[in-house]
Amino acid sequence: MDIRHLTSGLSVAPQLLAADIALLKQHGYRAIICNRPDGEGADQPLFAEIARAAQEAGMAVHYLPAESGKVSDEQGIAFGVLFDSLPKPVLAYCRTGMRSTTMWALSQAKLQPLPAILAAATKAGFDLKGVIRRIVNQGRTPVEIAEAEHTVVIIGGGAAGIATAASLLARCPGLDIAIIDPADVHYYQPGWTLVGAGVFDAPSTARTMASLIPEGVHWIKSAVAAFEPERNAVILDGCRVVKYAQLIVCPGLKLNWNAIEGLPETLGRNGVTSNYLYHLAPYTWQLVQQLRSGRAIFTQPPMPIKCAGAPQKAMYLSADHWQRTGVLDAIDIEFCNAGSVLFGVADYVPALMDYVRRYDIALDFGHNLIAVDGQHKSATFSRTNPDGSKDVVTREFDMLHVVPPQVAPDFIRVSPLADTNGWIDIDPATMRHNTIENIHALGDAGNSGNAKTAAAARVQAPVVAHNVLAALGKLTGSARYDGYGSCPLTVERGKIVLAEFTYGGKVAPSFPAWLIDGTRPSRLAWLLKERILPPLYWKGMLKGREWMAKPELADL
């Protein structure tokens, strides 16, 4: 644990894990304050999990969340009041510790000299110069004072962001690029389905961010709070300002766990799991191995979601294990899908239906999970009937695999970049913002109608790299993205239905049918998923090697 001492009785830290609580207790901490909202990261335990561990340890625990970079004066005051009321010493945490430090600083603005606040934060390793300027300017962040300025700024160090940086450097070595991302760890999230099936172990899907950011690219380890496109500036956590000539936005999306009543309190126990969280994918495999009879429910929320096939991948692999171990006949499997079809591209549905019948899966379309009672093992769904009417139904379960609703990150939804639904408003072919010429976006947060998959980002990255360099006058022509996405649907251990398609659900196979027929389960496609795609991701996509991903060019 990276604990930073701020002042008498108060320390701050990055994201805690439930396993950290016992050590905090040993170190004498008596209270915990969480300043991070749930759902900011796929490796983030929900507050309810931390609260359970703290309460079991006899420690006070409180939830005072703030969006990254948007700590208000009122929240600062609330933090001071809460801190004063708690037994000392107190540990406050968020993603990196910056929000907690900012809240403390705002709470002390009228109690201590500003140089003393700045010195305490600096000693703890936090740069609060932007916060101090905000206090002096009565709540306003002066964007004219930039902490840094770069030719290209990329928001997000996930698959899309690092791949785009690598593709830019492959075309223009020495280009001045900065990636803004607060995370220390980068995850190969497509591998979590196989972690939940006992094929991969979780640590194999993780690398340090520092080891992946291309050489020569500046890493600004912070979170973005707001955009000032009219000034070519972004505001960071801590009220710092970074300016750019071209901006690329690819922050991923937000998993909205709190949209389902009761889910945060029971996720990770009582048979409730999700492969969409790094630390819970192993729990999925544990539940699958332990279940010998009963009902297993797998859910899918309304679109759009990250990797639309992932909810049923978990289901098929679980059913395959139960079949192989001879207990499938004693287990009732239900797929509760908020949508109306099994898969959005009709060509792949017949092969999937063969497995639905093989595993005797009950398909419940129009079923959207709205509440979970973990103690009584019941799940409640809003059901849309064929005539359009709606009612509420409750199902009991022994195992529940949940896929949460998904939205654009908070700082995107409230920004001038967003459309009316909160997604970044971009041209689906060029990936350029529809109204702001020097901004491009790719990955999960854009409103282009492609599947939100790593395969899509792999093809989008070279398109954006070319078009950004064209905007800088370093290349000519316009690169076009055709909506390509891929979803390797793991229907059993050892076989995959390799769905590949472009805009409009047009089938777009990468291989000849005699090698891999994507509409049929294939062992070769499984080898592609298990053996080839992970190294292709780490050593190809993230290194700017655009195998089978060269963009199409058109004249400007």
Automatic annotation (TrEMBL):
Domain Rhodanese: 88-144
InterPro entries: BLH_phosphatase-like, FAD/NAD-bd_sf, FAD/NAD-binding_dom, Prot-tyrosine_phosphatase-like, Rhodanese-like_dom, Sulphide_quinone_reductase
Protein name listed in UniProt: Bifunctional protein tyrosine phosphatase family protein/NAD(P)/FAD-dependent oxidoreductase
